Amino acid sequence: MTTTKRSYSQNLALLSIGFILFIALIYQPLPQDFPQPWKYRVICFGSKLVTKIVCKLENIYLFLANANVLFQSYVLENLNLLKRIEAIRLLYYISIGCFQIRNPQHQLKIYDMIVGNVSVRVYQPLEYGSQDLMPAIIHFHGGGFMIGCIDTYDVVTYTIANQTRAIVLSVEYRRIPEHSFPSALNDSMSVAFEIFHNALRYKIDINRIALAGDSAGGNLALVITQHLIRDGFKPKLTCLMYPVLQFFDFTLPSYQQYLPRGILGIINQENLVYVISQLSGRVLVTHDMMQNNHTSINNKQRLYPYLNPQEYLPKHYQPTVKSLDMTENPLMTKTLEYLTTPDISPLLVSDQELQKLPIILLFTAEFDILRDEGFIFAERLKRLNKQLYHYHFNSAFHGSHVLLNGPLKFDYAWIMIEKTTEAIRKYL
Ligand SMILES: *[C@@H]1O[C@H](CO)[C@@H](O)[C@H](O)[C@H]1NC(C)=O
Ligand SMILES: *[C@@H]1O[C@H](CO)[C@@H](O)[C@H](O)[C@H]1NC(C)=O
Ligand SMILES: *[C@@H]1O[C@H](CO)[C@@H](O)[C@H](O)[C@H]1NC(C)=O
Ligand SMILES: *[C@@H]1O[C@H](CO)[C@@H](O)[C@H](O)[C@H]1NC(C)=O
């Protein structure tokens, strides 16, 4: 009879093999100066795994739902976790959201209020007296218009307030998939215009108001800056962390380079198509969008000069082949036409419009599908002699600056926040 008990060395061997397999599974090449590369690899692997499991569950669930009406009604009401969006939000919550632990050292009064009929969290420095007017930052969080909220950005926003000593108003705008475009923009505009219209009532110095945001929040910040200027208001500066600046050209080199790699395991083609479909009110979006087939030939000709990479990208980022495909998919061009308007693509405006912008603080990251539109924006502003502070994080990936706490903490995130607040302090 053989013994069922494995020896210590057998266990050790199994463990080592398991470990090597795990390393092989999660390995992806990253440049030498990438901060905390193994942590990044584990995050990517984890989120891909969860997405895979959820997609499998989705299929099983659809199968059962089709087979059984009772199951369908039960599952629909009780287990909406099986939906892609809930899975992504859960993933986001367990990786970032639940680690929003405030360091009690801050010198701020923090409270929630309604501004312009929208919820806002206020981070107010304690040193101002009742007669003082405060510099202000209206902050729009990122998350692809889909995830993120004022709670999951709490550490980011209180740190910005603590380090800039400006009052920060963090805006709880409506998100997709529940609310499509322009819900987020409307809510964010409502807050910004209320602050500019009634700055005194909020003890805010109207000459020292900044708009700030990252990713989708950066998109909102710049779009709203343009609206405010059109209405005669003068924001002092706009601070953009890897902002979304356009939905027109998805063939820019940074898209081609990083979309297939799936930054953080979630910024991939499938999720991008999902976001655009939900933004647009759940219309059909097909994958030829990635070849810009969602824009009409007319719009391609009209708008391409605003971001032509051959014209505006630094040499080392330039595409090897010029590839503006001159076809269009009429199933998409009508429903997605709004994507080429400045209300969601603030880069697609004339030099005259750019000329009116306030001081721009722009931060880009190397590992980011949005890298190139940031550089194109910077180059256009430079040629207009606009006041611009552009800092490129050479070894950061999209979304990294929110990883300030918890097991996924990237030490580099603190450097990114420090860089941002340093610039805001200097220019606001
Ligand atoms: C707030 O800012 C001060 C001064 O920069 C710093 O010493 C302190 O650690 C900060 N507190 C938090 C909680 O970030
Ligand atoms: C304020 O928001 C509520 C829902 O949050 C809505 O029912 C109401 O119509 C809004 N009022 C205005 C003036 O927009
Ligand atoms: C957004 O605002 C516009 C103009 O005020 C309004 O017509 C539209 O109904 C609003 N849409 C949403 C989704 O809030
Ligand atoms: C764009 O759409 C048209 C019409 O559906 C199709 O004929 C063409 O091949 C598509 N182009 C690309 C690059 O997918």
TrEMBL record:
Domain named Alpha/beta hydrolase fold-3: residues: 137-256, 320-401
The keyword Membrane appears for this protein: yes
Parts of the chain that traverse the membrane: 12-30
Keyword terms: Hydrolase, Membrane, Transmembrane, Transmembrane helix
GO molecular function: hydrolase activity
Active site: S215
InterPro entries xrefs: AB_hydrolase_3 (IPR013094), AB_hydrolase_fold (IPR029058), GDXG_lipolytic_enzyme (IPR050300), Lipase_GDXG_put_SER_AS (IPR033140)
Protein's UniProt name: Alpha/beta hydrolase fold-3 domain-containing protein
PROSITE patterns recorded: LIPASE_GDXG_SER
Gene3D superfamilies for this protein: alpha/beta hydrolase
Record SUPFAM superfamilies: alpha/beta-Hydrolases
Similarity field: Belongs to the 'GDXG' lipolytic enzyme family.
Keyword Transmembrane: yes
